Every structure is written in C-alpha cells, then in structure tokens.
Protein: Enoyl reductase (ER) domain-containing protein
Organism: Flemingia macrophylla
Amino acid sequence: MIMAKNNAGEEVQNKQVILRDYVNGYPRESDLYTRTNSIKLQVPQGSNGVLVKNLYLSCDPVMHFLMRKTEFRMSGYNYYVPGSPINGYGVAKVVDSGHPNFSAGNLVWGATGWEEYSHIQNPEKLFKIHHTDVPLSYYTGILGMPGITAYAGIFEVGSVKKGECVFISAASGAVGQLAGQFAKLLGCYVVGSAGSQEKVDLLKNKLGFDNAFNYKEEPDLDAALKRYFPEGIDFYLEQVGGKMFDAVLLNMKVHGRVAICGMISQYNIPEPEALKNLMHIAFKRLNIKGFTHRDHHHLYPKILETVVPLIREKKVVYVEDIVERLENGPAALVGLFTGRNFGKQVVAVAHN
Amino acid sequence: MIMAKNNAGEEVQNKQVILRDYVNGYPRESDLYTRTNSIKLQVPQGSNGVLVKNLYLSCDPVMHFLMRKTEFRMSGYNYYVPGSPINGYGVAKVVDSGHPNFSAGNLVWGATGWEEYSHIQNPEKLFKIHHTDVPLSYYTGILGMPGITAYAGIFEVGSVKKGECVFISAASGAVGQLAGQFAKLLGCYVVGSAGSQEKVDLLKNKLGFDNAFNYKEEPDLDAALKRYFPEGIDFYLEQVGGKMFDAVLLNMKVHGRVAICGMISQYNIPEPEALKNLMHIAFKRLNIKGFTHRDHHHLYPKILETVVPLIREKKVVYVEDIVERLENGPAALVGLFTGRNFGKQVVAVAHN
C-alpha cells in the first residue's frame, strides 16, 4: 500500500478557492479568492466519507453555471455558495476513510472541492484509479469526465460511422481533441474549429484532424463550412452554440445528427444570439440530441478498456494545459471562457 | 366508372392563381392574382401524365417558403415563379390520362396546381382515393399530408406512449388537432395552445384535449406551461417556434422529446427571435427531431387502415375551414399566417 504523505489525524493548513459573490456575465479572476483554513486529516467520527488530498483539479465550462444565481438548477450539481469553496472534478488521494470500499493511499477521481484537502461525504460516486502508468492528470481529461463525454458523443449519442463527415467545434479543448481522434480512428473525415492558429496547427499536425480552421478569422462561418464540407456534415459535435451552430444548421446533410454537450459561446453574454436557421432542423430532418457524461458512466469500464491501450500505443494523444498551484486556479478557470487554455485545462494542487 | 363532367378533349376556361412577385415578409392577398386561360382537357400526345379537374386545394404553411426568392431550396418542392400558377396539395378528378395506372373518373390527391384544371406530368406520386364515404376534402387534411404528419409525429418520430404529458402548439390547425386526438387515443395527458378563445373552446369541448390555452393572452408562456405541466412535458409537437419554443425548452422533462415539423411564427419576421434556452437541450438531454411527412409516405396504407375506421366511428373528428371558389384562395392562403383559419384551411374549387 502506498503511504499517504500526511498522516491521518494530523491537523494541517488547507488552502481553498472561494466564490466571492454570484457571477453575472464573464467570470473574472476577482470573483474568486483563496483563503487558508485548517483541517484535521481524519473523517469525522461516524462518517462513512473519505478525507482526500487533492492532486489535480479540472477546469470545466459547466463551472460557469454553478457560479451564477439562477432559478433553474440542473440536478446532480453542487451550485457554488458565496463564501464557500467551489467544487468540480479532480484526482485525489485518500488520506483517511470511513468507507469500506476505500482506504488510505487509494487514488480516486470524481467530484471534489477546490482546496488542498476535502472531506467527501458520499464517496460511492468516486472512481478508483487502477492504471497508474499514464499521467494521473489524465483522470481529469481523457480518462475522466471529458473522456466519457467524447466517447459517448461519438460512439453512442452520435453513432458515428466510418466514412462520415464530422465537424467538431472547440476542437482542441478537453472533449473536442478526443472526439476528433475517435472519429478519425473510425475512418471519418474530420474537421475542427478552434480559436487560434496555434490550436489549428495542433489539430492538423499533432491530433490528426483532416483539416481545421480558426473561427475568429472567418468573417463568414457558412462559407468556411462550405469550403471544408462541400457535401455537407453528417455529424456535428456542438460545444459552442451561437453563430457557429447557426452556420452548421445551414451545412448539415439531410438526416444529419448533432450532439450537444455545451454552448460555451453563449454562457457569458447578456442576451443569447438569435439563430436564423432553426427551421433547417425541420427542412433537413435533423436529429439533435443533448447529452452529458452523467448518463454514460456505465460506459466507463469499456472506455478504460478501449482508451488505455490507445494511450499506451500512442494511437491517441492528449494535450493538457497544466498550471501549478491552487493559487493559480482562478486565473486558469476564468481563462477557459476566453479560450486562453491550450488543450485540457488542469490545476495541479500537488503531484502526489 | 364515374364519368367526368367535362369531356376529354373539350377546350375550356381555366382560372389560375398566379404569384405576382417574390414575397418578402408576410404574404399579402395582393401578392397573388387570378387570371383565366384556356386549356384542352386532354393530355398532350405522348405524355404519360394526367389531366385533372381540381376539386379541393390545401393551404399549407410551407407555401410561404415557396413564394420567396431564397438561396436555400428544399428538395422535392416546386418553388413558385412570378407570373405562373402556384402549386400545392389538392384533391382532383382525372379527366384524361396518358398513364396506365389512371383513367378518367379516378379520384386522386397529391401535388397539383392552383387552377381549375392541371396537367400533372408525373402522376406516379399521386395517391388514388378509394374511400369515398368520407368527405373528399379530408384528403387535403386528416387523410392527406397533415394526417401523415400528425400520425408520423405522434407514433413514429415522437414514439409517444400511454400516460405521457404531451403539448401541441398550433393545436387547432390541420396537424395539431389530429396529433392531439391521436395522443388522447394513446392515453396521454394532452394540452394545446391556439390563438383565440374560440379555438381554445374547440380544443377542450370538441377535440377532447385535457386543456388548452390562448397563447396571445399569456404574458408569460413559461408560467402558462408550468400551470398546465407542473411535472414537465414528455413530448412537444413543435409547429410555431420563437417564444413558444423557448418557453417549452424550460418546461421539458429530462430526456424529453421534441418533434419539429414547422415554426410558423418565424416565417414572416425579418429577424428570427433570439432563443435564450437552447442550453436546456444539453441540460435536459433532450432529443429534438425535425421531420416532414415526405419521409413517412410508406405509412400511408397503415394510416388509412387506422384512421378511416376512427372517422367512421366518430372517434376522431376533423375541423375544416372551407372557402368556396378559387378566387377566394389567395385570402384563405394568406389568412393562414395570421391564424384567420379555424381548423384545416381548404379551398373548394369544385365539389365534383
């Protein structure tokens, strides 16, 4: 058994990232601050939770919603409370356990706090990490929630088939880079959009996309899509919304499919953009499915079985943007909404 | 064999409804005019078409698109040409035939011209009418294209099941009134929206909807839907778009389904309304399918088998708004876009 660095029972300092107040519009770094508390590295008496040391924290677009004060609340999420630490997905090491399935030294991934140590009251939902010959941070990405999302989007929700024309927006991001590589492995023609030349180069040269374009340099997204998809798009993985979605609707093939797991361009603007082409859903008899990884966790064993060998054989690569130290977490998180990240954005709180 | 009233070969006057010029925004009566030509009641030598006398013409929302000069053209439609007669679905009687499957006296429904007599060059796509103990005008509605749409929407695209909560917009229209009755026959809770108190009364008192509301008198469509669907909507048949679609997205159940066959509120406005709630497609993992009757014509024999007995046994009723004479066609057609019609809008050119 790997020994945890800290001893269970010890009282230690615990740095935390706190929400200052509910966020309107773009989140700014100043909406978050760090403070230091102390924590006893022990699950409270009678608790069947676990006390974990957080190693890698995942920056995810959905976190923007959790910062807002909204009437509509998605079930299954812990909305943030001003004055309290924010939460998200992360990789952690068990320091103390009140749960029979977990013991000190276990590596896990799942929902945790943005802090150095967290007491997780319902550890049943954590995934135990068994494969440690891959970077542990991958469990915030290719082997974590974005991996489930990409796998489900391509293989289950999209039922993508060999030879199809696939378009991926936010293609260099946590989900997009994987979804594109999965579609390539299936034998599809795959084009991605991203927000910088550097990201476009990454897609074309390192991730094996057939083509890619910088949406910020395309005055006419419809024309850009027609250039890359003269015959139209069979499957679109939608992550951005707004103008891009509108242009895609014009360029879908009859009976094309769209899988929507996000619309990041629409999260921060006071009024969403008007879409002109929704009627094409009917004209072209499109099938549009919203989905989240949450409905596909049952696929995880199959995903591990498929993807771990692909990583080992270097048939799939995964680009991460890791910032060191929890104090740099707020900047990394808000950078997600301006596309500052290059690949999957991770915060390394500790490496072991 | 029923003898046609006119004799094949005779030269007769042929009144036609002509498109004056391409339409922008709301079609007006003045965008159309009638003129009279003459026509020989005979298929041209060597043609394997049919010469028909038009009896009932169908006013359909899609006709608005055919009046426009647009770059995007749906396949399978004959876009209108200024100076020429418009076309649509209708019921007609064969006067002369150059096609082995048709002979004088046959009753048919399908695509025809807005004129007294039409030469239909590809009669293969016409449906022959065999059941004549129901009103012939029904073949523009419950037993025609809107019938296929409603049947496909509820039974195929929507896979609606007993006990589900179903919302139908444009519920007293050609498709909505039927879709609601089909859902009631399945054992669903069904609520419809319409644009006048008279239509709401029709839905509740004659068509058997569980409830109905006048969307024009609801300042807050979200609140209205929450009133009728406190637990949310399982299936929505979308025909109107805009504000209603946006409010529905807020009120769908998780994994709810939407079938879109039209968005009539958006056809005439210069800029489509901005939808605020598209993210709910992802939040609630909705499945949204565009569809048209055109993909479901193979269901027609089954529809006849199911629906004709329902009509005979008065288990389904069908409300038509029939105007007499082709000259009144333009007003009837443009009235569709302001909701002037009460039930399925039909133009009776002749009754036999």
Observations:
- Chain A has a mean pLDDT of 94.
